Structure formats: C-alpha cells, structure tokens
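Journal club side-thread
Mid-discussion, someone asked how the predicted structure for our own chain would compare to the paper's figures. Pasting it here so we can look after the session.
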Amino acid sequence: MYDLLLVISGLSFITAMIPESVDLKAVNEFSQNSMVGYLGIEFIEVGKDYLKARMPVNVKTIQPYGLLHGGASVVLAETLGSKASDLILSEDQFPVGIEINANHIKSVRSGYVYGTATPVHLGRRTHVWSVEIKDEEDNMICVSRLTVAVVDKK
C-alpha cells in the first residue's frame, strides 16, 4: 500500500507509510510457529515509518561463550525489515530477503535487545531497511541493512 509518489527534478520516489491500524497481537500470533516464535521475538511498537521488536538474550539466542549470537541479531534484523515491508505491500505481494549485512558493535549477556527498522529505500521491486539493535540501556549492539525483494503472489 503506497501512500505517496513524489516527483523531484524528474526522479520518482515512492514513499509508504505503515498503517496505524496494524494489530501487533495478530502480527505476533502469525509468527509463533516459525523461527521468530522459537527465538521469542515479539513485535512491540509500530509507527508510520518504523517497526520495533524485542528479543530475549537467553539460551536460545546466545553462543557458547554466553554472549548474544550474531546470527540471532541477524534473525531479528531480517524479521523486522521483512515484516515492515509486508505491512506496506498490497495483499498480492510478499517480501523476501535477498541481502543482509550486520556490524556487531557491542556484546550483551542477558535481558532483551530491541530492534528498530526504518526505511532507506522503498521501490516497486526492492525495499532497503536500516535496523538498529540496542540493549536495555540504549547501547548500540548491532547495525544492519536488509534488502528485500518484492514478489508477486501467483
């Protein structure tokens, strides 16, 4: 669901807004029988240009040395960007992650980490999301960038 098409100096930019009517309870229920549910990822906040979730740092998300596993941070980042795309796409489209990178800045051993996805680019066939993951004290844990392909349902 694209909100606005801007034309500046002959260049077109599609901007989208996440609907305010998103039911986070339904979003969380939809994800329960997947890796998202297994890791305990919970969508907690939505705004017109962001989606936020939290993930526990526990035995399911740590590596053998007791630190949050970098792969778990990547799962959180891809989950956020993909779901954010899903919330703005039409019902005949779905998002598929095609590239992700992550820089792990600081370690964390317990509690929760909080990820926030914001759009960098929202095109007709690709979306790019920036995801920041922070700990409970607002320390940057990981920064990630996700590219999502927009696929038509057949």
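Post-session note: The first helix runs from residue 24 to 30.
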